[in-house]
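SAMPLE LOG
Freezer: B-3
Tube label: C17
Construct: single chain, 159 aa
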Amino acid sequence: MNKTGRGHIGGDFQFARFSLGGREFGIEVRDVKEIVRLRETSRPPGCPPFLEGFITLRNIVVPVLDLRKRFSLPVSAFPDARIIIISAEGLIAGLVVDSVGDVSAGGKETAPAPCADEPWRDCVEAVVECQGQTVRIINPSALLTDDEKLFLCAPFTEG
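STRUCTURE (predicted):
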């Protein structure tokens, strides 16, 4: 697969698959640090709307975003919901997804017509066919705005 954006070619490219609103997505495995079960987040007063809250994972406080909300998809309880812990531009964050599948290698790159109304259009760096399904490969660095990244780099203070 010839992958745009970060220059990956062929079977060396591996991605963790996950579902969100009935669609298949993937994140490159080098950006995935861990996958944990969905758990309660703590949301301090003054927390910005883009954050679902925070979890503590081995004494590290991790900000959590719900990708269903980020992409304006219906939020409902999924028994297999997970938090994918990612690293992007030196930031650690958790992403709530409906379920997580296997790690897949490569795929056949497709070139669908751009769809301007897809809420994830700015985050998808490649679209591949893998095991008979269309998988949108997300660039985790594109999930946050510059202001959101700046917030996550600074200590959180209330008020």
